[in-house]
Design a protein that fits this description.
The chain is α+β, with helices and mostly antiparallel strands and about 475 residues long. The protein has 13 helices and 17 strands.
């Protein structure tokens, strides 16, 4: 079943119902079976898998196997909001950057490596912030890492965006977990002298680049940090903060700017794997003792803010009438004050309204438990087990596709722009499977692709794969790849 789900993802079959549009026998041959399961039975088998609640163990095993092979322990952590448009679940709203709106949804916090390959995903129950998610992820990473750090060096490092910016929290991660942080600095008001920057040649995302960089120490909220800035051609200075004690200047910049691999990862999954689709509908209860910001308290705070804004605009209009008292004279001032009387009356009204709202908010707790919410407004969550299974499948498939993508880059010049499109075309094109039981061979003959350069790239890819001498699973038939294109 796991193999079927992986092959479906590679073939861009986005849900079990779409299997009806494909030949069950042809897809079954990819697995060495007579046919793949019928849709109803297929969903029943998925339900049997998710009912065991073993997906967390699957994620742990996958993360351990991948993290052990990482040359450097740098983890990129960012959240992705899965927007919910239904009416079955009652979910808190959060700001969705790609939509530029506050929408109901669930946040998934992904952990990737520097190349953008996924390692782990943690699903938030309600409206967790990135900082709280990182504090949940760190112990899970520590549990699976067996490498021992050198004295004074971090156990591992995390790279996050400005959402998690808090200097005191960065120092807390170092003091409690010995975890280094690399992130962008917020609210930069000063500028360094351009003469301090020097040219540094390095690589970002396998591309040679030359950057103007400079490093100095800086104190923020009573804590000392390394600050690195990059000077762009238009004179803008991009500031990077880190608590890593020994990472070199160019490597720190490279690690930070490589964060875009994770953004590209999200974009690619949304476009190709129907990333946010639910496999199973239904809701689950959240921990009733969990505390959240009181919605009524937030409403009162918003009302106070708007009343103060309206009052300030009226005060500005009154001030504009009387600010030049020496120039306009006392006679004109009296007339102006008469005109301002309605405004002053409204200001007094807003003062009374603000006073009442403050008194009302004073009697409301800023945080309440889920159980204290009105029953019709009480938060719950979508069923998570099937989505966790889908996330595991997506991680496996994306890493498998990326492995072929990296191989293809060795002999295809435009691989960065077209490599994944060629692979997608291979997955979706026809092929012949020719078994030879006497010589223990299974020949996979690919049909011609859309362009000569794609066929040439596939021919070299086939040659590379043949050198691996891989056998078809559970058989002794060695796989031979070839293409009919001349």
């Amino acid at each position: 079943m796991i193999l079927v789900l992986c092959l479906m993802a590679l073939c861009r079959i986005k849900n079990p119902e779409q299997l009806k549009k494909h030949s069950p026998g042809e897809l079954g041959k990819l697995l060495g079976l007579d046919r793949i399961p019928e849709v109803g039975y297929f969903r029943e088998k998925i339900r049997q898998i998710t009912d065991q609640a073993k997906t967390d163990e699957l994620h742990t095993v996958l993360f351990h196997s991948w993290a052990e092979k990482m040359p450097e322990l740098f983890f990129y952590i960012d959240g992705h909001v899965r927007v919910y448009y239904g009416d079955l679940a009652t979910l808190p709203k959060r700001f969705v950057t790609r939509e530029k709106l506050c929408l109901s949804g669930t946040t998934e916090f992904w952990v990737n490596d520097q190349q953008g390959l996924p390692l782990m995903v943690v699903t938030g129950e309600l409206n967790e912030k990135l900082k709280s998610a990182v504090e949940e992820i760190i112990p899970k990473i520590q549990k699976e890492i067996t490498r021992i750090a050198e004295p004074g060096e971090p156990v591992f490092s995390i790279v996050v965006d400005r959402e998690a910016y808090e200097p005191g929290w960065f120092k807390k991660l170092w003091n409690e977990y010995r975890v280094a942080v690399i992130t962008y600095r917020k609210n930069v008001k000063d500028e360094w002298d351009n003469a301090l920057f020097h040219h540094v040649e390095t690589q970002v995302l396998n591309t040679d680049v030359t950057m103007l960089l400079c490093e100095m120490g800086t104190e923020l909220d009573g804590h000392w940090f390394r600050e690195i800035r990059r000077l762009s051609e238009n004179g803008h200075q991009t500031s990077i903060l880190t608590t890593h004690p020994s990472l070199s200047l160019p490597n720190t910049a490279v690690k930070m700017f490589s964060r875009w691999t994770q953004e590209n990862f999200f974009k690619y999954l949304i476009a190709n794997f129907d990333f946010d689709r639910m496999l199973e509908y239904g809701i689950e209860q959240v921990d009733q003792k969990r505390t959240i910001p009181n919605p009524d308290y937030k409403i009162s705070t918003y009302q106070i803010k708007k009343a103060r804004e309206k009052k300030s605009r009226l005060e500005a209009r009154v001030f504009q009438q009387v600010k030049d008292i020496d120039a306009i004279g006392m006679n004109y001032l009296e007339k102006s004050m008469l005109k301002c009387a309605p405004l002053i009356e409204k200001i007094t009204g807003y003062n009374d309204e603000i006073k009442d709202l403050l008194e009302k908010r004073k009697n409301q707790p800023s945080r309440i438990s889920i159980a204290e919410m009105p029953h019709e407004q009480r938060y719950n969550k979508l069923k998570q087990e099937s989505k966790k299974l889908k996330n595991a499948i997506i991680m496996l498939v994306y890493r498998a596709e990326s492995a072929l993508f990296n191989i293809l880059s060795e002999f295809y010049k435009s691989n960065e722009q077209e490599g994944r499109m060629i692979l997608k075309e291979i997955f979706l094109s026809d092929a012949d499977m020719i078994p030879d039981y006497e010589n223990k061979l299974l020949t996979i003959r690919l049909h011609s692709l859309s362009t000569p350069r794609a066929n040439q790239a596939v021919r070299k890819l086939c040659s590379f794969l043949n050198q691996t001498e891989t056998c078809f699973p559970f058989t002794d038939l060695r796989l031979i790849y070839e293409t009919v294109a001349v």
